[in-house]
Amino acid sequence: MSLKTRLSPEVLEVLKNEINVLEIGINPKQREEIIIDWEITPELKEIGILNDFVRFVQDLRQEAGLMPKEFVSLKISGGKMLMNILRKRMKDLEKRAKTHISYLRRSTLIAEKEFNYENFGKVKIELFK
Question: In the chain, what are the domain boundaries?
Answer without folding.
Answer: 2-35, 42-128
